[in-house]
Amino acid sequence: MVKKSVHEINRKIEDGSVNVVTAEEMVTIVEELGAEGAAKEVDVVTTGTFGAMCSSGLMLNLGHSEPPIKIQKIWFNNVEAYSGLAAVDAYLGAAQISDTRGIQYGGAHVIEDLLRGKEIDVHATSYGTDCYPRKVLDTIISLEDLNEAILLNPRNAYQKYAAATNSSKRTLHTYMGELLPNLGNVTYSGAGVLSPLSNDPNYETIGMGTRIFMGGTQGYVIGNGTQHSPSSGFGTLMLKGNLKEMNPDYLRAASFTGYGATLYMGVGIPIPILNEKLAAATAVRDEDIVTTIEDYAVGSRDKPVIREVSYAELRSGSVQIDGKDVPTSSLSSFKNARKIANELKAWVKHGKFFVSMPVERLCAEGSAKPMKETQVVPLVKDVMSSFVVTIKRDQTVQDAAKKIWANSFNHLTVISDSGELVGILTAWDISKAVAENCFDSVESVMTKKVLTCAPNEPVDLAARRLDRYGVSAMPVIDAQRQVLGIITSDNISKLLARRY
Amino acid sequence: MKIKITIPTERIHNPIISESIVETGILINIMVANIDSTYGELIADVNDLKFDKIKNALESRGAIVSILDRPIHRDEEECIECGACISVCPMNVYSFDDSWNVLVDEKKCIQCGVCIKMCPHGALKLGE
Ligand code: SF4
Ligand code: SF4
Questions:
Q1: Cβ contact (<8 Å) for B80 and A50?
Q2: Residues lining ligand 2, CB < 6 A?
Q3: Which residues of chain B neighbour A257 with C-beta distances below 8 Å?
Q4: Per-residue pLDDT tens for B28-73?
Q5: Is there a single domain that holds both residue B106 and residue B61?
Q6: φ, ψ for residue A317, nearest 5 deg
Q7: Using CA atoms, how far apart are residues B84 and A182, in angstroms rounded to an integer?
Q8: Which chain A residue has the Cα nearest residue B99?
Q9: Average pLDDT over residues A120-142
């Protein structure tokens, strides 16, 4: 049994005799020496990760103006921050987007600009009080003008993350990047072998108070992250660090097309090797870290799992799905994760960084709950019209016109002899056919590529589809393509009128 | 060099490409072809010295030929070498080397622009 204390290790850091390796190097050391031998040899293992961490933000204090103001609303370069705190504090979320520049520029970009020494426009408003009479404030600040600029990240450094793919027929724009149609690619995030929490999965040394590498300086773990889900291997951390000391190499603003702004953060955590159990845990390899590939074609919380996959396979460049090689893309940078682990290693080695034990451990059990929703989400079948006027495809345009006239209904669904949906015809299609002197069969003038929806889909999804494709109605069909009803923008407006 | 051959709607039923190849004896390497009943667009590789000749042959039959000379450009300052661009590029322009640096083989680029949208750091542009 090897037993070391953090104090012993820190003494070794002080006198320069510490043996520190990266989590990547530790894999072979444990292979060669065994866990016990490695625990004797190695004092500290460094980890690193560099990826998109949307749940980040800057807690800042502006100092008082003259006359003073109790800020109610505030914008930095037109990105709104939250200031419902005391008079001149605000929290600028990385994912908040600019009122004027849209998703290209967000809170993350303001944070990076501040760090790079750029000047930032500040606009603030207030209702005015006797003690804080001022109602409007406009100024220009840079990082050094702030009293505090603390990066406060509620959910960072996921232990691992599910990979993403897309089985639908169109490209999806997501926080997991561009997902090509028909399972065209897989994207993933996380540093695998170097991932901090995967190297200490029982959270023995990573907890509240653990000193870490954060954005190029020393920061701290201040607790578990939000949505901490240790039982499923998706632990997260809440972190704090001083932006004024950080380095833009390790803090980069980003924007995902069609999704929005996010912050790439560099985080590294040293793991003091106190015993052989920790040595064994830090020998974790990409092969050992298993996650799932989920299908983002389904716009709901529970996405279908396509398969399980290890980080080794994800990082090989392609994964097998249904016997096909699908190319993979990493969204986080392994090169930078490695750079961080090595930089932290150098800090420890040269006596610039001392390891710490948590003052309180993170809970190692439990999982994040879904949202409690008191209002039932209406489904398509709840709002659709079950009165549908259908027409057979070989009937004439004149038959169609008569039907529309008789039922004062704008959409005819066209069905085959066995009742399957084959097309849709609107009053407008008929006017067009008449204008062009075309009185053939319905089939020759109908729209064949019909957008449809399923009865159990949430109305919101159907509404988004109507909107995206600029159509006013969609037949509701079952698995056999039999028409059950129709949902129109009218149904949806009525629902909204009831809701708000 | 890489060229784009666009075939307008009214010519789509003529064997423009084959005729031009047969007439000039110049082989072109077709890398991407999007052809349907209304429109055709091909990306092909052709020997620099033979470009003028095949261009004349194609254009005399109504095709539009342009040189693809603005391959993708990566701003190394902006790039964080995540590799997000790798999986979306149809021509495998991007790859990781052994040290997880992102390599860019610009010569293969057909300027489809897909990677530009994928890059979270705005590091990619079609060059001038
Ligand atoms: S996606 Fe952009 S940032 Fe990432 S490697 Fe490619 S060019 Fe670089
Ligand atoms: S423009 Fe298209 S072909 Fe060129 S590098 Fe980007 S994705 Fe690849």
A1: yes
A2: B 72, 88-91, 93, 109-115
A3: 117-118
A4: 888 888 887 777 888 888 888 888 899 999 998 888 888 888 889 9
A5: no
A6: 110, -25
A7: 18
A8: A335
A9: 97
Predicted confidence band of residue A401 (pLDDT cuts 50, 70, 90):
confident
Quote the pTM value. Answer: 0.85
Instruction: Render A65-119 in DSSP notation, one character per residue.
Output: -SS----SEEEETTEEEB--SSTTEEEEETT-EETTTEEEEEHHHHHHHHHTT--
Structure confidence by residue, pLDDT tens digits, A273-318 = 999 999 999 999 999 999 999 999 988 888 999 999 999 999 999 9
Q: Rounded to an integer, what distance in angstroms lies between the CA atom of residue A480 and that of residue A460?
A: 24
Cβ atoms of A452 and A486 closer than 8 Å: no
Q: What's the rounded Cα separation, in Å, for the pair A226 and A224?
A: 7
| CATH classification of the domain holding B30 | 3.30.70.120
Q: How confident is residue A352, by pLDDT bands cut at 50, 70 and 90?
A: very high
- Specify whether A131 is catalytic: yes
Strands B64-67 and B29-35 turn out to be unpaired
Last residue of a domain, one of B65, B83, B107: B65
Partner residue opposite B84 with nearest CB, options A255, A329, A335: A329
Q: Report in angstroms the alpha-carbon separations of A161 from A16, A164, A225, A291, A357.
A: 37, 9, 14, 7, 26
B6 with B59, same domain: the answer is yes
For residue B116, give the CATH number of its domain. Answer: 3.30.70.20
Cα A151 to its chain centre, rounded Å, is 19
B-chain CB neighbours of A163 within 8 Å are: none
Same domain flag for B1 and B57 = yes
> What gap in Å lies between CA A337 and CA A191, rounded to an integer?
7
Same domain, B35 and B3: yes
Q: How many domains does chain B have?
A: 2
* Closest by Cα among B57, B61, B122 to A254: B122
Q: Tell me if ipTM is over 0.85.
A: no
Which pLDDT value is given to residue A157? 92
Predicted local distance difference test score (pLDDT) of residue A460:
87
Residue B45's domain spans which residues? 1-65
Residues B78 and B106 in one domain: yes
The conformation of residue A185, written as its DSSP 8-state character, comes to: -
Question: Which domains occur in chain A, in start order?
Answer: 6-54+152-361 (no CATH), 63-146 (no CATH), 380-498 (3.10.580.10)
Would you call A257 and B117 a contact, using CB atoms and an 8 Å cutoff?
yes
Q: Largest Cα–Cα distance of chain A, in whole Å?
A: 95
Where among B65, B89, B114 does a domain terminate? B65
Identify the residue whose C-alpha is closest to ligand 1 atom 6. B85
Which residue of B81, B85, B117 is in closest CB contact with A336?
A: B81
Q: Which of A54, A171, A333, A339 to mutate to test the interface with B (most CBs of B within 10 A)?
A: A333
